[in-house]
Specification:
four-stranded mixed β-sheet, alpha/beta, CBS-domain
């Protein structure tokens, strides 16, 4: 078989590189399909962290990636928990530091994360037929700012995390200006829209 040599050139001084197209989330209403407010991990990479990292480093990653939730994974990339910006900026680190006599900078993700066994998930089959309003009601009922969405895949039909739903993302897509990241405030703003 005969192979050809492709034309090649040298890099110019001002060359850059491709970046993924920014996915602009659509404007939604409470009656929109719930899948429109889910970050689909088949289309966007999950942001992860090791349980051994400091919470300060976790917050730095969140700011850099523009997310408010990290999946905590072990060396085999299995999810062992989650940690949110609210976990880091709330009472948990202060309480942990006080009870264990450690400095804030020495608190690790494992010390304040929500372990896997305490993380509730929604199933993709339910989310795929739900509306945005159903998700808002679910988050309100469970007093959570995020929801993980599970799917089943592979020949063993293993449960995997398919998506992440964020209350703040819902608010942005509903067109609500978020002044604060407090869940109560965001839910109140969404409730106001629901009553219209």
């Amino acid at each position: 078989m005969h192979y050809s040599v492709l034309q090649h050139k040298f890099l110019e001084d001002d060359i850059s590189y491709h970046r993924p197209n920014a996915i602009i989330p659509p404007h939604v209403t409470l009656n929109s399909p719930a899948l429109e407010i889910m970050t689909d991990l088949k289309q966007a990479s999950a942001t992860t962290i090791s349980q051994n990292e400091s919470i300060d480093h976790a917050l730095e990653i969140m700011k850099r990636r523009g997310v408010r939730l990290l999946l905590v994974v072990d060396a085999a990339d299995a999810i062992i928990g989650i940690i949110s910006a609210l976990d880091i900026s709330g009472e948990r680190p202060l309480q942990f530091a006080r009870e264990n006599g450690v400095a804030h900078k020495d608190i690790s993700v494992r010390d304040i994360m929500t372990p896997r066994n305490d993380v509730e998930v929604l199933l993709i089959k339910d989310v795929s037929v739900a509306r945005v309003g159903d998700i808002v009601e679910t988050l309100k009922q469970t007093s959570r700012q995020h929801a993980l969405v599970a799917d089943f895949q592979g020949h063993e039909n293993r449960k995997t995390i398919r998506g992440i739903i964020s209350l703040n993302q819902i608010a942005r897509q509903l067109g609500i200006q978020i002044q604060t990241y407090e869940m109560a405030h965001t839910l109140a703003e969404i409730a106001h829209i629901m009553q219209k």
